[in-house]
Write a structure and sequence with these properties.
mainly alpha, MetI-like fold, 2 domains
């Protein structure tokens, strides 16, 4: 046991904890200061977790085959970016995730508009949607591989299935969030259905829609990676994790996981930024900016 690493990790953790406690109590008047604190606090928290991981793994002499330290994972990432991590990222994220996510969310949004116009679809399709959304991913993925082949198309199909119904349910709920007083006001202006939809009901539904988009950003990545376990060309994040763990190449497993987590976080953050720009009028966004 190397107690020096453990002591260093604990001291760093206590110091970072105290610094974060001090930062969250600061109430800067300038918006730039508030944004800087909101960025520093989670960044410092993440660095603290990595330092704790590094110190405890090295201090307790944990075998690398069980849990490699972050420095080893980072070294593997740097060495493997040209090949195989970048081709894996292209196959899984740029093809399966983005294409499936776009098709699933767009088609669900259009179907939600049709459901809103049809009471029959509202009563008949939504229960079916709840049923399909409860289907296990491990049951859907092999079927899609049989239908669409082993390339990225089958993984995109899994992503479409996973993202369709969360988007559908949230959009329908958002369209129904408009109060009767606002609808009566639009009627007094002799607004048509489409005018009411564009100027009133869709703006009121944007928080629900973006909530579905953020949920689907993580579901899409999980679905694509898990689907690759059931058949894929010799490329892809899911394939890399499965192949590396079979060879006890644990640092490559963690490198692939880290790249997937970073891509998913950036994707989620991009959607959150777009949400803040679109729903700037919403009380949650306004309170966050004023704070």
């Amino acid at each position: 046991m190397n107690t020096g690493w453990i002591i260093f990790a604990v001291i760093f953790w206590l110091g970072a904890w105290g610094l974060n406690e001090a930062l969250v109590r600061i109430r800067p008047r300038a918006r730039a200061g508030a944004m800087a604190i909101n960025l520093i606090v989670p960044l410092l928290f993440g660095v603290t977790l990595l330092v704790l991981w590094e110190g405890l793994v090295r201090g307790l002499n944990v075998p690398a085959v069980l849990l490699p330290p972050p420095s080893v994972v980072w070294q593997r990432i740097v060495l493997s970016i040209p090949n195989p991590l970048w081709p894996d990222f292209q196959q899984t994220f740029l093809k399966s995730v983005l294409i499936g996510y776009t098709i699933g969310c767009t088609s669900a949004f259009l179907v939600a508009i049709a459901v809103d116009r049809s009471p029959f679809l509202k009563r008949g399709l939504l229960p079916v949607g709840n049923f399909v959304s409860a289907l296990p991913l491990v049951g859907i993925a092999p079927i899609m591989v049989m239908w669409f082949g082993f390339d990225w198309q089958s993984k995109a199909a899994v992503v479409v299935v996973m993202t369709f119904f969360p988007m559908l349910v949230n959009t329908v709920a958002g369209l129904n969030a408009t109060g009767p007083m606002e609808k009566d006001l639009m009627r007094t202006y002799a607004a048509s259905y489409w005018q009411t939809l564009a100027k009133l009901r869709l703006p009121m539904a944007w928080p629900f829609i973006f909530n579905a988009l953020k949920i689907n950003s993580t579901l899409a990545l999980i679905g694509a990676i898990v689907a690759e376990f059931f058949g894929t060309p010799v490329v892809g994040m899911g394939f890399r994790i499965s192949a590396a763990i079979g060879r006890l190449n644990v640092d490559m497993v963690w490198a692939s996981i880290a790249v997937a987590a970073l891509a998913g976080s950036l994707f989620y953050g991009l959607i959150a930024l777009i949400e803040r720009a679109v729903t700037f009028w919403h009380p949650s966004v306004r309170s966050g900016r004023s704070g």
